[in-house]
Structures are given as C-alpha cells and as structure tokens.
Design brief:
The structure is a single chain. This protein is about 45% helix and about 15% strand. It starts with 6 loop residues before the first strand and ends with a helix. A four-stranded antiparallel β-sheet has the order 1-2-3-4, with helices on one face. By secondary structure, it is α+β, with helices and mostly antiparallel strands. The protein has two domains: about 5-65; about 70-160, no CATH class. It is built from four helices and seven strands. The chain has helices spanning about 15-35, 40-65, 90-100, 150-160, and strands spanning about 5-10, 70, 75, 80-85, 120, 130-135, 140-145. Strand 3 (about 75) and strand 4 (about 80-85) form a beta hairpin.
Length: about 160
Amino acid sequence: MSDAADWTDTPTRWWLPATVALVLTVVVTSVRGLSGDATGAGAVAWTGAFVAGVLLVTSLSARGYGHLRLTATTLYVGRHAYPLVELDPAVLHAQVVLGRPLRAGEQGPDGTPVPRPRPAAGAWSPTFRTRALLVRLRDGSWYAVATSDPMALLHELVRRAG
C-alpha cells in the first residue's frame, strides 16, 4: 500500500440492525393499528418500538463512531482527527514488540502504568465487535481507538508515523 492510499476500517454490517429496526417498527405499528386493543397489543407495540429504537441508535453509532481512516498525515477516528506527528512512537513500537495491544494497568514503555484511556471519536465505549488499540499523544493523553483489527491498524500506524 502506498503512503498516498488511505487505510480504512468501517463497520460493514451496520445496515443489518438498521433494516431489522425498520421492519420491526413497521410490523409493530401495523399490529397495533389492526388490533385496536390498547392493553396487550399496545404493550407489544411499545416494547417493539423501544427495541427498534435501540437497534437503530446502536447501528448508527457503530457507523459514526466506528469509522477509521488513516491517511499519510492523519488518523481520523469518527469525528476526531489525530495528526500522526502527535502520536507517541514509543507506545506504538512497544505494542509491536509485545505482539498485542497494551491494556490499561499494564506497564507502559516508560515504566509507568497505562491509565484508563478515553475512547477516541467521542464514543462511550468500543462498539460491537471491535477491540481497542491504545495510543498515546505526545502531550501524555491516552486514547482507545476501536477497530476490528488492532494489529493491522498498529502496523499501519508504525509504518506511516515511524
């Protein structure tokens, strides 16, 4: 892969829960409209609408917060951008030597314990079917970048950021 090419990692199955949520909403509202019963069908309708809403929000969050794009100069994670020159190369190289991503509480490359990182992209936690790659910025702040393949992202970051 050339340096000019972007490396991306986007959830590919986000549309499946969104489609299920849409179908569930249509079915639940049609059942409620056909029954005319406000007790049993109403409870089923509201429960179905709630489940559909949760599925829809989850799938859209995975799409928005889970999109990664790595260019020659910047790591884009969801709505945030991290210039590659701001990433601490010692942490990246330590994870390559370790052969796996660091975890909070482990000893970092400078001998201090790795603190609990903030999730990158503004999410509360990594989305469904992702794992976190910990990165440290030169100012000392730690971030957890959610990705489906942390080692592939790590090797691309090392290759591009040095």
